[in-house]
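Today's session is about reading a structure prediction critically. Students often jump straight to the picture, but the first step is always the sequence itself: look for stretches that repeat, for charged clusters, for runs of hydrophobic residues. Only then move on to the predicted structure, which in these notes is written as discrete structure tokens rather than atom positions. Here is the chain we will use throughout the hour.
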Amino acid sequence: MTANPETGRVNQKTRTRTAIVDACRQIIRAGGPVTMPEVAHAALVSEPTAYRYFPDLISLLNAALPGMWPSPAEALDPVESSTDPVERVAFACEFLLRGVLAYQGAVRAMISATITRPELVANRPGIRFGLIDEALDPLADAIPLDRARLTELKQDLAAVISAEALFSLTDLCRLSPDDAIASLVRTAATVTEAALSRAAAQPSRSAAMPRSRHR
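Below is the predicted structure for this chain, in token form.
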């Protein structure tokens, strides 16, 4: 039986693509800088070959990162039974930042690439948003925040539970990684506590709206 040359070419392309993605994951796990030349070298292919499969570093990172991070529910499993939103947010914050620290070569590469090409920002994974949702949404009916205030809290937390905030503290403020993470966990907890305190002291916006009178 004669082998189909087209099938052989497809299989070879699949093997090459898999090799490039696997090489990228190995570099990410090592925590070093992630660049297309480094990935091509590790995958034993030429740099032009790597670019034929992935037109830019962001597309390669997006292919490599799935499976390297657990789902938000898996990540927050240790606090799954907690009804304390502050505890859940603090845990989500530390989880994300520890992951950023472990994979900082890839994270820095992603941030750098989207700074120079802002049209690619929408392609960033946005892992923080899933973690914040998982921390707060299960308690949405139990905490004194209406939908608008809950959205505001999530937006405030997105500025704190972030790689950008971590790198600002480690790179510019010269904090150690552990001190930087501790600072941001405290900040995330404080932001959450403040939002809950304000909401408890004030009626919700919908409740504060004057009701129309029936005549």
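Discussion point for the tutorial: DSSP finds twelve helices and no strands in the chain.
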